[in-house]
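In response to a reviewer's request, we include the raw inputs and outputs for one of the modeled complexes. The two entities were modeled together in a single run.
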Amino acid sequence: MSIGLDPRTRIVLVFNVGILALVFDHWASLLALVALCLLPFLAKWKWTVRALSLAVLVVWSTVVSQALFYNAEPRIAWFHLGPLTVWREGAVYGLVQSLRVVAVGLAGVALAIRTPPDRMFAGLLRLRVPFGLALMASAAFRFLPELSESWSVVRQARRRRGRPAHHRTPWRWLQLEVSLLRPLVARAIRRAWCLGESLDSRGFDPVAPRAVRKPLRFGSGEPVLVAAVCTLTCSAVAMRVLYLLYTWDSVYVPSLRPMYAFVRAWL
Amino acid sequence: MTLRSEGVGYRFPTADQPAVDGFDLVVDPGTFVLLTGPTGCGKSTWMRLAAGLLQRHGSGTVDGRIELDGVPVDGLLPSHRVARLGFVAQVPHDQIVTGTVGDEVAFGLESAGQSAEEIEVGVRRALQSVQLDVSVDHPSTALSGGQMARLVVASAIAGSPSILLLDEPLAQLDPPAAAALLDVLRAIADAGTAVVMIEHRVHLVRDVVDRVVVMNHGRIIGEGADKLTEVGLGLALPVLPSPESYGPVLLEGTGLRYRYPNNEMDALAGVDFSLRAGERVALMGPNGSGKSTLLKSLSLAIEAGSIRQAGGVIDVPQDPDLALFCATVRDELAYGPREHRMPPDKIVARTATVAEALNLTHLLDRAPQSLSRGQRLRVAVGAAMTVAPDVLLLDEPTSGQDRVEVARMMRALAETDHTRAIVFATHDEELARAAATRIVRIDRGQEVKA
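The model returned the following structure tokens for the whole complex.
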């Protein structure tokens, strides 16, 4: 995504990452997927550090918790930490699950930070997403980052007028925290109303056909990239389905034995 | 096209009184009309009716007729609206729909079904009209306040509407940006468009417009300077007395320097600031000059260098929505004293005093979020005043207020028994001269010495 891909290509790539993350069940293939999803973050050192930190944090915490609390059978004790047993299957299970989450998360974040909202909007429209839904998605992309900033201003405003939040009973503290959502909700409603008026006064009609100022165009090689990725994903899905049918004793094709071996070893 | 408003009224579902009542106005092509009146008198409500918005989306009761050359404004087809009516709301940032300048201006033209070539011509013409000299691919939300105001005007005029309605488009602009936008609007009116604009700072606009229409209690009470005086809007702000001497230093910052993430310029570039008891300091400067950043640094909301506070400091942000979190105005005003464990009878007394000083008594049982922007700002200032800090930092506390309320607020701030000094950011030169004991001018993050 660091090479100026068409938004449709980006959305399709993220969609494919989502499917592959579900289809892959081996930590090595998932790790490769995560590595690919890290590529867009390499454009900036700061992004790379943040993405890697987040990935390591998610993987580490999931692996440790699953390694300690894994409950399914069979399980083999890997080693002991004092009274605690570290289960090998738990660690592998945690690794696989966390890599899935990290791959999809990184792909989504990369799409969000590397795609301007208007391009995202245009891309969604061209992918036949309904206009209203595409508009809502792109508006959310624009306004969501401002939410955390507003949240911090609200908390600062409260702090200056009152005691520290923890100087009260847990119930009062909870009430206070909930009440702090009020200005955010009110602001979001006010903003949505204003945006609605702006759309209405500029002739917006969700069901009417619209002209397009700047039609999207695929860059050279992008259709090939999209076709290749979609073919890879479809192949992976097909192999996974055939393998599942084989393991469920439903369909067994002797000539597919090399494929079964490949799925077992790598997917 | 002529805009005709006959006997127009509007009552919000829960209101006892109509917000607009028997409003008659005719606006001819090429006329530039200023619509003014006290805060909350129904100006914005009428403008939303004139744009056909409240008829379509409001849940109140509408009376009378608003027509464009005999056609009711609420009956216009969406694709026809763009060429008939342009509407600009109060906060530019909130009405921006798309991500780039070009797409934003093109939005209405796309709705009208124009061809790609026509859209491109329309976009360039509109941007040229408002003298917005940025690339069409420039991110729309990365513009300055003044540029953003021009962008929303360009978006509204791109379809060459016959009527342009603007709700306080100058509210957040510094004087040069406001003057430039007024010149643009004058040129649009001279080209044949009827322009109706709401604004409180009549002295800024009076020489540019053709008519000054004054409104009060939901209806037009007349036109011209006499009527302005009748509702207190034409009056000069009273000059507040300065103390004979000032007390000890309450707030001091040295070498304040701050740069926002992903910005190439320092928002504050080595500012020294000190505030003594008894001072009322006005911070002035163009949009984006660093006024708000200086206030944030003085309140320790951001780390910009060495700050010494000798007493309690409270800041009120520019956006009142972010300072109000209680269910009623009364609770909002009482929150601070209650938190500081003040006796209940004193809380009631202080709340009543501040409410009266800021003309909020009649709003005490209302939800803060249901009030107009000007009223919400007053509640936010009042909520800070009831805490009785030594220093109050206010970021544009008078935007959206009429002159009567501005004078009332500044008097209340100057006469309060508890707060010993205030700093307020403003674009209003007259207000600064009348209310401040000292004016500090900021430009590009540095203090500008006279």
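As requested, we also summarize the result in words. The CA atoms of residues 241 and 339 of chain B lie 33 Å apart. Chain B has a mean pLDDT of 89.
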